[in-house]
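User: Let's play a game. I give you a shape written as tokens, and you guess the letters that built it. Ready? Here's round one.
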């Protein structure tokens, strides 16, 4: 399936793309557009104004995708707190990791394409998921 988001990928878009490929659509391909009007009819938009898979209420896109797909994994929800805090900085969650994630994703965007940033962030989130899993599930 094709998925489309805004170009200039940042933390919520990159993390949402990771969530899509790891828990929703393993065969996903991604397009990056300047204008929502440029989303092809055969692509599902995310993290764009007015789309179903975007910010809703206090939720960032990552949280919306979790809710829409009934993903109940507590590790994903802990990761959602970090992504949320990194994206909107509203202090809704106690997520000290958010500042580091925000800085790293911004830094990656300075010298990589959107697709490269998505891939690098996906690798990072695979590891962060495993790290958080031990903490969330009380493993040593």
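Assistant: Ready! My guess for every position:
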């Amino acid at each position: 399936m094709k998925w489309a988001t805004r170009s200039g990928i940042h933390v919520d878009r990159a993390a949402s793309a990771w969530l899509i490929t790891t828990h929703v659509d393993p065969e996903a391909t991604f397009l990056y557009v300047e204008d929502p009007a440029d989303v092809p009819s055969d692509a599902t938009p995310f993290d764009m104004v007015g789309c179903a898979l975007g910010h809703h209420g206090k939720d960032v896109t990552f949280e919306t995708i979790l809710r829409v797909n009934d993903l109940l994994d507590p590790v994903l929800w802990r990761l959602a707190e970090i992504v949320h805090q990194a994206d909107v900085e509203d202090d809704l969650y106690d997520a000290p990791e958010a500042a580091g994630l925000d800085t790293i994703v911004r830094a990656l965007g300075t010298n990589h394409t959107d697709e490269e940033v998505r891939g690098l962030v996906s690798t990072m989130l695979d590891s962060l998921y495993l790290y958080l899993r031990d903490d969330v599930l009380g493993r040593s």
